[in-house]
Amino acid sequence: MRFSGLRVLKEGLTGNKGWRPHWRDPEPKSDYDIVIIGGGGHGLSTAYYLAREHGLTNVAVLEKGYIGGGNVGRNTTIVRANYFLEGNSQFYSHSLKLWEGLEEDLNYNVMHSQRGLINLFHSDGQRDAFARRGNMMNSQGDDAILLDREGVRKELPYLDFDNPRFPVYGGLFHPRGGTARHDAVAWGYARGADQRGVDLIQNCEVTGIDIENGKVRGVQTTRGAIRAKKVGIVVAGRSGQVAAMAGMRLPIESHILQAFVTEGLKPCIHHVVSFGMGHFYMSQSDKGGLVFGGDLDFYASYAQRGNLPMKEHVMEAGMALMPMIGKAKVLRSWGGIMDMTPDGSPIIDKTGIDGLYIDCGWCYGGFKAVPGSGHCFAHLIAQDRPHAAAEKYRLDRFRTGYGLMDEEGTGPQHNLH
Amino acid sequence: MRIPGKGLIDETQVSFRFDGHAYEGRAGDTLASALLANDVRLMARSFKYHRPRGPLTAGSEEPNALVTVGEGARRDPNVRATVQEVYDGLVARSQNAFPSTSFDVMAVNDLLSPFLSAGFYYKTFMWPRAFWEKLYEPVIRRAAGLGALSGEPDPDQYEKAFAFCDLLVIGAGPTGLMAALTAARGGADVILCDEDNRMGGRLLAENEEIGGMPGHVWAEEVLDELRDMENVRLMTRTTVTGAYDQGTYGALERVRHHRPRGPLPKSCFWRIVAKRAVLAAGALERPVAFRNNDRPGVMTAGATRAYLNRWGVAAGKSVVVFGNTDDTHRTARDLIAAGVHVPVVVDNRHDAEPQGDYRVIAGGHVVNSSGRRGVEAVEVAHANGRRESFACESLAMSGGWNPSVHLACHMNGRPVWNDAIQAFVPKPGMIPGMTAAGAANGTFSTHGCLEDGQQAALDALSDLGRKAEADTLPPAGDAPYRIRPLWAVPGRGRAWLDFQNDVTVKDVKLAAQENFRSVEHMKRYTTQGMATDQGKNSNVAALAVLADATGRAIEETGTTTFRPPYTPVPIAAMGAGGGGIGFAPQRFTTSDAAARQSGAPMIEAGLWYRPSYFPKPGETTWRQSCDREVRMVRDAVGICDVSTLGKIDIQGPDAGAFLDFVYTNMFSTLKVGRTRYGLMLREDGHVMDDGTTARLGAHHYLMTTTTAAAGNVMKHLDFVSQALRPDLDVRFTSVTEQWAQFAVAGPKSRELLQGLLDAFTPEDWPFMACGDISVMGVKGRLFRISFSGEHAYEIAVPSRYGDSLYRELIARAETLGGGAYGMEALNVMRIEKGFITHAEIHGRTTAFDIGMERMVSDKKDCIGKTMSERPGLMDPMREQLVGLKPVGAVKQLTAGAHLYNAGEEPVRENDQGYITSNCYSPTLDTVLALGFLKNGRARHGEKIRMVDSLRGLDALCEVCDPVFLDPKGEKMRG
Amino acid sequence: MAELKAKTPYETVTGGASGPERMEVTPFVAVEVDPGALTSLAPYKGQAKALSTALEAAHGMGLPKPNRMTGKQSAQALWFGRDMALLIGPAPDASLAAHAAVTDQSDAWSVVELSGPGVDEVLARLVPVDLRGHVFKRGHTARTLVGHMSASVTRTGADSFRIMVFRSMVKTLFRELHHAMIGVSARREAAGAG
Amino acid sequence: MRITCPICGERDIREFTYQGAAVALDRPDPEAGDEAWDHYVHLRENPAGRTRDLWYHSGGCSAWVVVTRDTVTHEVFDTELAEEAKA
Fold it and tell me: What domains appear along chain D, each with residue ranges and CATH number?
C-alpha cells in the first residue's frame, strides 16, 4: 500500500478501514542468507538496504523486544553532518544525503526537518576549533557558516547576551542540520524492508552465535535455531554481550545519556541549538515540546535511566544559555544506552570470524547515522568489503593507532567523548 | 455553583481575573473550583481537535484545564487550574485557542477528524519535498503546543536544596498521615510531603469518619501532633517527582505559586535522601471512554465529590452519575445531601441497588453526551439495550481507581496486575527501601489505608533498628471494593481516552489494525499517554482497549515505562542557580581588580578571568594595544599575571621517581635549584599536558601545569599515586591559590628586579634557575623561565600580597618603559617562539607530532610510553607541527583554515593539514601561523595552499620551522 | 621603601581595602575571618602516628580522624582530605617536616564563618551533606561541595560553620551564600507573617 | 546515586568523578605486547551486571575508590580505596 495525501482522504471518507499492517509478523524460517541481530534503527536500515541496494531479501531481522525499541526511540532526534576528522566527515556527509531523500525513498514521512543547527562558541580557542570543523564540512561538500556574535543574535535573539557566565562569541551554523521524527525512521525502514520481503521477527532474542571452524553458521534464539550464511551484529546497548557470544571483547563501555522533553509550547525555538560550555542542546518538536539533553551521566550503566546531578547540570546550562525557558516544564526524562568507544567514533567492520560482521560503538552519534550506517553495513555484508564512506571505521584502529577519530580529543577514556 | 455551608475552606473573598473577566473566589479555592463556583466550566481547548474542555479532575493529573497564569515575563504556561490556588490579584487566561476558548477557529480540526486519525502525518505531507519545512511543518507547529513562553528571561527566583531523613512519607492522606505519625512516635526523622496545599488527601474530599470524627478533623489532629515534633518536617505543596538510586528522591516545592510577587523563591527543587520511604500517594480515578465523553461538565466522580465536599462547589444543578463501584453511590449520596439533583445513577454492575433516594439503572452505560460547549444531556443504554436520555449539567463518572504506582516504577520495575481491583499495583522491592502502602498499593478502604500506613512505618522503623509498637488504630470505614471492568462503552463515534492529545478508542484500534500491537508502538503511534498527564488518566483504559483489539489480556499487554518526573518540573527549578553568572564559579586572580581598573577587557580562561589587553589612550583596536605590548616586552619589560597556571607542590622520598614515571623526561636527575620543561602523556601515548617543574629540595618539587589542565593533572597524579604506584612515597598539595605569580619579561626584567628584590644577584639566576627570594620583606620564590622568548622571570609571593606586588611591578615597569601585557600579546609572543598551548596539544597530538619524540626517555618506563610506540602514532605521514608564513598576495592566515598542496582543489580528499594558531607578529612584521601538516617536518620551504572557506580566504604560504624568532634561544638564556 | 600590603581574599578581588567582608541577611551573618596560618600536613607512608605524636608535642593536639577537627581555639588540626590535615593557627613546628609533607596554605583558602539561628537551612541549599545538628556536630568536618565549589565545611558551634573554598572563588562563595540566606530568610518571614 | 567513600562515608555521586573499569589498576608491563596493552587501554568486559570501576572523590577527600556495583540496577555492593585494592 502506497501512502499519500490522497490515500489519507480516501480512507478518511471510508472509516479508515482499509489501512493494512505496516509490516508483517512472520514466523522465523530455519534458514536465511543473512541474519541481522538487532531490530533498532541501524538493523532495520541495514535490512532495508540489503534488499533495496543488493537485492538480498532472504534476510531476517531478529529483535528481542519490539522493533525500534532501543535508542532510535529514545534520543533527541538531531540529524547533522558536522564532523571534522577524516572518516567521520565523509560518513556523516553520506548519511545526511540519504536523509535528504528518505521520505520519497521510504514512502514514509519521517518529518526530516532541516531547520538548521547552531553550535555556539565562547572563546577564541573554541572559535578556531569550530573554524577547523566548518572548513572541513565545506571541503567535504556539506555546509557551514561561521557566525559572529551579532550573527548569532540575529538567529537566536533569546540567548543570554547581557549577563552570561560564558559570553557567546559566535556560532557555527549548519543549515542542513535539523531533526526528524525518531520512531517514524524505524517504522519507515521496517515497512520498507518488510515490503521487500525481509522477515522482521520481534520478541526473538538471540542467545548464541554458532561458529564452526572460524565461520559463522547461524544463531540460537528464544524461538529456535536459525541458520545463516552471514550474520550482522548491530545491537547498540548490548554490543558487548552479543559479541561475547562470538568470543569477542569490544573496545566499548556502555553509558547512560539522558534526554528530556517539556510540555508542549507554542513555537519558540526554531533551530537546534548547542551550548559550547555546558553540554546542553535543545530543539523544539513539532508537537511543541522542547527536546533537550546534555552529557552522559558518566558511569557505565545499562539502566536506561539516570540520576539527578546530570539532570540538574543540563537544566542549569539551559538557564545559563537561554533564560527564557525557565517556565517550560519538564514532562519526561529518559535514558539511552550509549556504546562509547575509546575515540568516540563507531565501528563498522568484519570480525575475525568469517561471515560475522559488526556495526557498533555509535556513542551519541547513532540516530543521525541510521541511514548511513545501514547503507554501509549492508554494503559490507553483501560485498564483503567496506563502503568507501565507512572504510575508516575499523575495529583494529585502537591497537594499531592508525586512523583514530577522537573528535573531542579526550583520549581513551570511554565516557569522555 | 457554590453551595452555602458546604466545604472546608473559609469565607475570605479573593478577587482574580480569568480571560479578562473579574471573579470572586475564596481563599483555599483552586482556580478550577473558583471558576466552577462562578459557573465557568469552559477553560481550555484540546491539543489536536481543539475541542472545548472543562476540568476533568481536581488534581495535578488534570489533562484539560491548563491555563496560563501571570503576565509579561512572569507568565507561566500550562498551569493546572485544578492545582493553582487563587489569590487576590491572580490573573489567568486560557490557551491554545484563537481568538478565544468559546470560539476557536482551529476547532475546524474537529470536523476534519476522519482525516486526522492516528499516525496520519506519517502517510502524507511528503510531496513536494520542500513543502515540509516551508508549509506543512510551520502550520502543524503553530497549531500544536499548548501555552506560550513569554520569550523573555524568567525573572523569578528559584532555589534548590538538600534534605535528609530516616523516613520519607510521600502523600499525606490517611495512609501517609498514619505512617508519618507511627514513625515519628517511634523516634525516626520523618519528612512528610504532599503535593496539595493542605494535607489530608482524600479525607478532605470525602464524607468519611475516622475515630468517630470527620476524616478531615482527624487529619488535622494528627497534623497538630506532627507539627509539634522536632523530628518531623511537613512539606506541603511539595511533589515528590522522582525516585533515584540509593534512596535519593527529587521533589518540587511550589513556594510562591499561591502568592503575589515577593522575596520568596517561586519554587524549590529538593533532593531528599531517605533511608526508607513509604509511597502513600493514593490512587487516581479513571474516566470512562464513551462517545463525546470529553464535554465540559463531564468529570470524574472523585473530582465531583472533591469540589463539593472540600470547596463547596457543585459541578451543576443536576448531575448524572456513572460508574462501576460503590463510589458511584457515594457520589450520588453526597450530591443529594447537598441539594443537588441526581436524575439517575448508571451503574454497570447488574446487581447494583440504590443506596439512597435516587434512581439506579443497573447494568447500564452512558453511551453519549450532548450539549453546546458543555454537557446538557446524556444518553443511557439500559442492560437490555433500551436508550434513555437525561438532561443534566454535569456527569460524574468513574471507571475505578488506579493506584499511583509511578514513583515505584522509576527504576524500571513493572507493576503487576491485580484482578480484584482491575488495576496495576507495585511489586515489593521495585525501589530499594521504598514500600507502597494504602491506595497506592491497591488498598482502598480507609481502615485498610490506616493499617497499611502503620505497618509500613513499623517495618521501616524495624529496618532502621528502632523499637516500635503499634498503637491501636482508630476505627474507620472498611467496606469492600467491588468493581466490574468498565473501560470503553461500545458504540459509534469518538470516545476519548487521552483527553488532551485527543486519542480515541478508534485510534488505538487503528494502531492495532496497522500492527502497532506492542503497547510501546501503540503509544508512540497514537501519542496515547504522551500528554502533560503522561497517561495518568488514560493509560490503563487504553491498554484495555489495545488488549481487547489484539486478543490479549491486559497483564499480557503490559505497560509503558513510568519515567520521572511524576508531575512536570520547571527547568528554572531544577536548573536553579544556573542563570547569568551563576552557571559556574568565577575565579579571580589577585591582579584582577588592578587589571580592570586599567581598562583591560577580561576574558574567560576556564573558570578564570584574564586580561585580554591593556588599552592606552588613543588605541582604538585590540591589535594596536597588542602590538604595543609585544614591542614593549621585546624592547623593555612587561608584566603578566600567570597565577592561573596550576601549581602542585610535590614532596616525599620518591618524588623524583614519581615524576620520572608521569613525565616522559627525567626529573630525578634535575639539580636542586633548577627548573625543567616536562611533557606528560596520557596512557594512550597522546600528549596530556606540559609545563615546567622546579626542584626546590632533594625531596621537594614544584610542578606547573597549564591553566586548562590543572584539575585534570592533579587528578591524574592522584590516580598514578594511589592506583598505579602506591609503592612510591610521595605527597601532593595544590598551591595554585597560595601563590600569586607574575611573569617579568623583557630585556629590562633584570633591572626591574634589582630594585625590587631584597638581595638579587642576577648571576646567581641563570636560565631555568629557581629558588627562594625576599620581595620587599616578603618571602617569595623566583623562577628564571620564559614563555615569551625574552630574558624573563616569574616571581611568586603569597596571594595576600598579590594585588600589592602586581601594582608595584607595573609601576616599576612603567618607569622602565614597560607595563602590563595581556593574553593577546602573550599569545603572539609564544607563537613567535613556536611554543605550544592547548591549541596544538588538543588531545590528538603525540610527542612525535610536535617534534618532541626525543623527550620520551628510553631509559625508563613512563605513562603513555608503550602506547606512543604504536605504529599509527609514529607514522611519518602524520600531521606534524610546522610554522607557516604567507608568501602570496593574500597576507592573512587564519586558525581553523585547512592546508592543501598548491594547485590542488580544496576538497576533503586533498586535505594536508590545518592551522591551529595565528597572529600578526609586530616583531617580524608579518603574519605567522602554527599548524599541522602531513609529514610537515620534511617539507620546510615548501609552498602550500591555505583555504578558509568560512572566511573566504585562499592564501599561499611557506612551510617553515615553528620557531620563528631567536631559534637558538639566546635572548631568553642570555 | 614601600611595603607589600596584605589583603583578604575578598578585598583582593574587589580591589578595596575595607577590611574583612561581612554580609548580613537577618538572621544570618557571613564574615570573612583570618584564622592564622594554614599549613597542610600530609604524612608520609607509615608516618601518621609519628606525625600525630609530633603534632601533639608541638601544638597540643593529635592528628584528627577523618571528618573531625581536633584542638582548641588557638591551634586546631582539621582533617582536610585523604592523608591530609590542615594545621590552623600557629606556624608549623619544624619537627613536623620529618614525618609529613608540610605546605603553607595560608593564602590558598578563603575562610568564612557563617552563623545564625538554624543556619543549617542555609547550607542545606548548597551542601550535599547532612549537616543537621544531631548528625553533624561541633567539631565535625567534611570535604564536600558548596554549590559547584570544592570546599571544607566544619561545624564550629550550634549555629555556626566555617566554610573554606579556594581563595579565588571567594566572590562566588559570598554570592551563593547570599542567595541561600535570602531564600531562607524570606521563608521565615513568610511563615512568621502566617 | 550515592557511593560510600571509604574515608568520608556515604556521599552523593555529584562529589565523584568517574573513570571507568577497574582494569585500569592492572597496568601491564611495558613489554607485555600490543594485545595486552590494547586490552588495558581499550577493550572492556562491559558487563550488564556486576562490575568494578574506579571513581575519584574529586568533590571530597581526593581518594580513588574502587566501587563494586551493578550496571543494571545501580546497586552498590562494596567500595574500597584503590590504594588498598591495589595492595
Answer: 2-86 (3.30.2270.10)
CB B767 within 8 A of CB B822: no
Q: Is D75 on the interface with B (CB under 8 A)?
A: yes
* B158-284+403-463: in CATH 3.50.50.60: yes
C63-106 pLDDT, tens digit per residue, is 999 999 999 888 999 999 999 999 999 999 999 999 999 999 99
The CA distance from B961 to B550, in Å, is 74
Residues 6+ apart with CB under 8 A from D12: A309, B248, B271, B273, C128, D1, D2
Total domains in the fold of chain C? 2
ipTM above 0.90, yes or no: yes
Contacts of B47 in chain A (CB under 8 A): 264
Question: Cβ D15–C67 below 8 Å, yes or no?
Answer: no
Domain range B487-552, CATH class: mainly alpha
pLDDT in 10s for each residue of chain C, 194 residues = 579 999 999 999 988 778 899 999 999 999 999 999 999 999 999 999 999 999 999 999 999 999 999 998 889 999 999 999 999 999 999 999 999 999 999 999 999 999 999 999 999 999 999 999 999 999 999 999 999 999 999 999 999 999 999 999 999 999 999 999 999 999 999 988 65
Which chain B positions have a beta carbon within 8 Å of D69's beta carbon?
Answer: none
> What is the percent of chain B with per-residue pLDDT over 70, rounded to a whole number?
100
Q: What is the pLDDT of residues D15-35, one digit of tens each?
A: 999 999 999 999 999 999 999
Q: Say if residues A314 and A333 touch (Cβ distance below 8 Å).
A: no
Q: Does B683 touch chain A (CB under 8 A)?
A: yes
Cβ contact D60–C128 (<8 Å): no
CATH code for the structural domain at B646-734: 3.30.70.1400
Residue count of chain D, please give it: 87
In this complex, is the C-beta atom of B93 within 8 Å of any C-beta atom belonging to chain D?
Answer: no
pLDDT in tens, A72-103: 999 999 999 999 999 999 999 999 999 999 99
If you search the block for the grid coordinates 547581557, which residue do you land on?
A162
Nearest to B312 by CA among B14, B89, B18, B28: B28
Confidence of residue B104 (pLDDT cuts 50, 70, 90): confident
- A318 vs B269, B271, B575: nearest CB: B575
SS3 string, B21-49, reads EEEEEECCCEHHHHHHHCCCCCCEECCCC
Tell me whether residues B652 and C132 touch, CB distance under 8 A.
Answer: no
Cell of B831: 607563537
The beta-carbon neighbor of C101 closest among B592, B651, B798 is B651
Instruction: Give, as one character, the DSSP assignment of residue D59.
Output: T
* Neighboring chains of D (3 or more beta-carbon pairs < 8 A): A, B, C
The CA distance from A28 to B776, in Å, is 87
CB of A398 within 8 Å of a chain D CB? The answer is: yes
Query: pTM of the predicted model, to two decimals?
Result: 0.97
Of D2, D56, D76, Cβ closest to residue B718: D56
Helix, strand, coil in percent for chain D, rounding step 5: 25, 40, 40
Count residue pairs from B and C with Cβ separation < 8 A.
Answer: 158
Domain final residue, candidates C48, C71, C104: C104
What domains sit in chain A, N to C, each tagged with a CATH number?
A: 25-77+183-251+343-416 (3.50.50.60), 113-178+254-340 (3.30.9.10)
Residue of C nearest to D61 (CA): C81
CA distance D4 to chain C (A): 12
The model's pLDDT over B156-170, given as tens digits with 9 standing for 90+, comes to 999 999 999 999 999
- B870 interfaces chain D, CB cutoff of 8 Å: yes
Please write the tens of the pLDDT for every residue from B521-530. 999 999 999 9
